[in-house]
Amino acid sequence: MEFGIVELSRLQFAMTAMYHFLFVPLTLGLSIVVAIMETVYVMTNRPIWRQMTKFWGTLFGINFVLGVATGITMEFQFGMNWSYYSHYVGDIFGAPLAIEGLMAFFLEATFVGLFFFGWDKLGKVAHLVVAWLVAIGSNFSALWILIANGWMQNPVGAQFNPQTMRMEMTDFFAVLFNEVAQAKFVHTVSAGYVTAAVFVIGVSAWYMLKGRHIELARRSITVGAAFGLASAFSVVLLGDESGYSATHSQKMKLAAIEAMWDTEKAPASFNLIGFPDQKARETHYAIEIPWVMGLIGTRSLTTEIPGINQLVAQAQDRIRSGIVAYDALMHIRAKNGAPDPADTAIFEKHSADLGFAFLLKKYIDDPRQATDAQIVAAANDTVPTVWPLFWAFRIMVVLGFGFIGTMGYLFYRASFKGMNYPRPMLKLAVIMIPAPWIAAEMGWFVAEFGRQPWTVDGVLPTALSVSSLSITEVSLTLAGFVLFYTVLFIIEMGLMLKYIRKGPYQDVEETEAWVQRHKNRLAGRRNADSIAMPAE
């Protein structure tokens, strides 16, 4: 593959985004887990729950700081590498990002400070409120960012202005309640909750294998298993909702994920496994499960899901319609603010397809001069590379069901076996720590790579979105970002491992005294039961 400005800019943004998302899911999930633990402390007044809150809160704080650093750097790229994109859709995309910065981030950042430095200055209930505000702020940040991203996947509530040559917002609430954005939000935060649950369980399992901090570890696994089981079910169910919304808004992405080359008779089957061949447009050695894709994608037995070949044919029609819109737009622009009503009417009729005409810019400066061969080539460009999408989706799904099974077993052991866990299960929990990050990165890869060749689906091609930079400039910044993010990742891992090895170091004497009293009470209760048994 030859790397030009577009490919290098995509690589740079993909690298920084995927680095950043190493921190995001753990922040989302740990904020809730910490708040739950502090809630139990306030309700029971047991020192061990305060110690658990502080310990896991410390790990949350390390991850939060690194997440902020990588997130701020990533957002600068919109102006650096994607200036035309920022100009073209900034009126819509900028609004939720601005709200995220002004409302959610400031809320989160302000109360993070109170959480860490307010233990001895705030009452228990007041500090608990702070903990929940940190959690709410973290999730609000995700909401607004995903609203912005969801609009890129399904651009509703906006229209193109021929005078300004930009997209402009027409309905803020349509952007806010975009079905893709809402489905992405609940799916993403649920994935973050699973990530935190697996992390808490894995670290706690390591403590139990080492024979350290047993009481904290057993209770942490209990919280993680209950929270993680509910979250894992949510991820699967809400992922189904994302698939259903893609049936309406991103048909090509859905067809590529499934490697569905031709439209099948409803209800469509699901390719459990196979080897997509994009050149031949067929899937070799496919193992199909009848009806499943039709039920997931349409929730009916009679609605068809269009295949890739049919969608390419539709893209050709939309490109030709877009050429008509482009021609009318050029006439409107030539009239200097006094357009012919006939041109305006033609443009309004075909404006929804203007973005498809822009696909021809890859082949010719003036889309109106495009040949049939160029139109066919541009239509074929609407098909993303299928095999990585196909496999990334299946890796994500397999891991998702694996989380359900693991969490279900641990929840059973916590609830009915006295929080006693077999050593093989504890070892598996430690090994599984990276798994939710792999699943999350696969999910984002499917979401973003599957949208290509569009920056904004059906509106703005990626090839037109980049800044006017040289290959040398982008290469240097790419190398700089790789170095910077690698250093941050090493710092993150070093700090996390340091504090995990150190273990809970706050409120040690008070907690140990309570644990001993608790053990004595349990021992006394068992002795009383054994004495009472013969009398019965």
UniProtKB/TrEMBL annotation:
CC terms in the record's Gene Ontology section: cytochrome complex; plasma membrane
InterPro entries: Cyt-d_ubiquinol_oxidase_su_1
Biological process (GO), any one: aerobic electron transport chain
UniProt keyword Cell inner membrane, yes or no: yes
Keywords: Cell inner membrane, Cell membrane, Electron transport, Heme, Iron, Membrane, Metal-binding, Transmembrane, Transmembrane helix, Transport
Subcellular location, record wording: Cell inner membrane
Transmembrane annotation, as ranges: 20-43, 55-72, 92-117, 129-147, 185-209, 221-239, 391-412, 424-447, 467-491
Membrane protein topology class: Multi-pass membrane protein
The keyword Phosphoprotein appears for this protein: no
GO MF: electron transfer activity; heme binding; metal ion binding; oxidoreductase activity, acting on diphenols and related substances as donors, oxygen as acceptor
Taxonomic superkingdom: Bacteria
Family, per entry: Belongs to the cytochrome ubiquinol oxidase subunit 1 family.
Protein name: Cytochrome d terminal oxidase subunit 1
Phylogenetic placement of the source organism: Bacteria, Pseudomonadati, Pseudomonadota, Alphaproteobacteria, Rhodospirillales
